[in-house]
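S1.2 Input.
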Amino acid sequence: MSLSLFLIQMLNGLQLGVLLFMLSAGLTLVFGIMNFVNLAHGSLYMMGAYFAAAAYARTDSFLLAALVGIVGSAALGFAIERIVAARLYARDHLDHVLATFGLILFFNELARTVWGASPYYMNVPQALSGTINLLGISYSAYRFAIIVVGLLVALGCYLLINKTRVGMLIRAGSSNPTIVAALGVNIKLLNAAIFALGAALAGVAGLMSGPILSVQPGMGEPILITAMIVIVIGGIGSVRGAFYSALIVGVIDTAGRAFLPMILREFLDRSTAQAAGPALASMLICIFMAAVLALKPQGLFPVKNQ
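S1.3 Output.
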C-alpha cells in the first residue's frame, strides 16, 4: 500500500465524515434536542438532492441548484413540522415512528412519480470537475469542496448554538419549553425553525452528494441508519459529538472498505478475501458503536448539562 493511496482514502473518509455530519447535525437538533423521532429525515435529504438536481438540469447553475435544494428542504421541513410533527410532540415515540415512517413511504412514491424510478444524475460543476494538488497527491476538487462546505457548516452550527440568542433559546427550549414560553418566546415558532434548520442541513448534504451518488427514491434510508449510529456514538443531543463521531465513523468505514480486503488477502485466498472484506467492513461501524456503548453508554461526547 502506497502513501498516496493511504492519504486519498483518509481524505475520502473525511469527506464521508462531513457529509454524515451535515445529515446527523439536523437529526441531532430534532431528535436530541426536541425529543422527536424523525425517521423522515433521510427523505428530506433525498428531496434536497432531487430539488437541487432538477434545478441544475434546468438552469445549469450550481448556485441556483444549491439555493433551490436548501430552501426547498427547509420549506418542506417547516411544513412537516406544522402539519405532522407539532401534533405529536406530546405523544410517545412509537407515534413519532409510525407517522414519520408513513412520510418515508409517501416521499419515496412522490419522488418515483415525479422523477421516475430510474436514478437521476447531477453533473459535477464545471469549475470543480478537475483535481487539485493536496499534500503532494492529486485529489478531486469536488470532493475537497465537500470537505470545505462540511467544515463551514460545522463552524456555523457551533456559532449559532453557542454564540447567538437563537442558540440560547434553542438550548433553553430543549431543557424547559414551558418556562421559555412563559418568558414570551413563541415556542411553537422556535420548534418549527429548528425543524426547518435540520431539514436545510439535510438538504445541504443531499445537494453535495448529488454529483457523486445517483439520486433515486429510497436513497435516504441507508444513510439515515448511519447518521443514527453517528449521533448514538457522539452522544444524543450533542452537535459537537455528532461532528467528532461523524469524522470517526467516516474514516473507519472508508478505511475498512479500502484496506480490509487487502489485509485479508495476506491470510486467505483472493476470492475469499474479496467476498469477506466488504462484508466485514460494513460491520465495522456497528462493532465500534457496540464498543462505545459498552464503555460509555452516554456516547463519546455527551451534552455537558445532562
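S1.4 Remarks. The longest helix spans residues 3-33.
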